[in-house]
Amino acid sequence: MANKPKLPVQNGLFEGGITCPDVQNLPWIIDHRGIDTVEVRVPGSVFQPVLLKPHQQNIEVGPGKLDAHEEQFVRDLVNYLYPHGGQPWSEQTPLKWGDSEIWLKRNIEKRKDSFCLRVDDSDWFYPDFILWILDHKTKTQTFGFVDPKGMIIGAGKGWADYKIVCTLYMPHVLERQLAESNQQVEYQGETWKFRVRGALVSTAPFASLVAQGKFRVLDNSDTMVAPTQEEFRRGRIAFQKQGDTSYIKDTLDLLTTDSVLDDLLARTALLFDRNHTYFTPQSESDYDLLIRKDNLRDTDSESAFVQNIVEAYLKQKDASAANAIISKRCRQQLVHYAKEGGILGFGAEKAHELRDHPTPAEELWKRKENQPQK
User: How many beta carbons lie within 10 A of that of residue 305, not counting itself?
Assistant: First the structure.
């Protein structure tokens, strides 16, 4: 008869060595004298231990203790990846997700070695977790960050909130900087593709976020409406659910799969790149970005520009839909100027002559560029 594997043994947070079994699929839990669960070892975690926030008021835990929603995220991650158990017991063994390995790191706020982002003159954003995803099939490493957050208060400015902008946009800025420095990632003797992506996990329900009214987008009639759950996901926001780990798949997909909004924001990062001498438009969407940037007021920030892009294009699920709405909006502007007459180089042109223009965004930009300066 085979010997049963020994249960993990480690030192407790306060004293002594304690042997403990798996608790709710989080492998190594320390409970000091029944007071509370305060210390946990997580497979695939490169920062040990992960500390849990106790319920008792007289116990202080730190640094980087997990609150209830952060703890749920870690539990749900392990449960989603190993629904029938069998997760690794060693913290030196990565979690497995198909062909990929996942390493989990607790990102502790305001430590010198922690990962942080900022945009404009905002505070620094320290996301709660780093998920380093290694896809051996495609030779791609994704430096993913995840932050479970109460979005009603935690992102009170909606799409312009610095935590939202840091999650949606700043990864593309980082990739621009890495590309300019010609840095390459070498792993196991091979060159790998390196990506940076983020995701927010809303601890507030979808209905509450919609009712708040700060997250609104333009529909195809240019009316401001509430996003659907799928559209929130395109905005890199997943919704944490009690007793349901499906949001973990949404989160992992957000870290490893891009949308048309990501493509637009990657081009936006190039457009605002102060080290890049000239942005060369290559598509109708590029000309639309140029037009929008040209319309910025002196007081507008990069965050306001990102908000504008998100509101305009979050409902477009693919490139063809985005191109269609760009063409529609730019043709409407062309026709408007034709009706006014003499604006942006329009003389005796008729509206019907512009309705079928094949590249209305490019045409609109060229005419704006040729306008005499006021």
Answer: 21
